[in-house]
Structure of Bacterial type II secretion system protein E domain-containing protein:
Amino acid sequence: GHTVMATFHAASVEKLIQRITGSPINVPKTYMDNLNVVIIISAVKLPNGKTARRILSVSELFGYDGVTDSFAFAEVFHWNPETDSYEFTGYMNSYLLENKIAVKRGIPANKRRVMYQELDRRAKVLEKLHRSGVKNFYELYQ
């Protein structure tokens, strides 16, 4: 299938699922396993007193359990309002990285944690670009 992105007004993963599976949308709960990631965004007050929009959390949705009528999901990124920074709470524990992306890339089960080393490498490259003042890809080639 094709990658799809949509926006909804919801304050949490639970509220989003209620809106999608409830009236008038009525998507069957069993279809919700097609939803991989939920990003919650909100206007917040920063430590300096200013108001800004921030991604509050990024959560991975694992699927629906028909027996308990519940959804399994885990927050993998979390915004820290005190420092206005993000914490990767899914480090070494990401369902999508280990069970979907690694599988699609043909990475064997015993080597899937290598994905985190690649994330670390990419984060270091981005941090170096940030420290160098590079703001867009045009500046990268100068």
Observations:
- The beta strands are 37-45, 51-65, 70-80, 85-87.
- The CA atoms of residues 50 and 58 lie 23 Å apart.
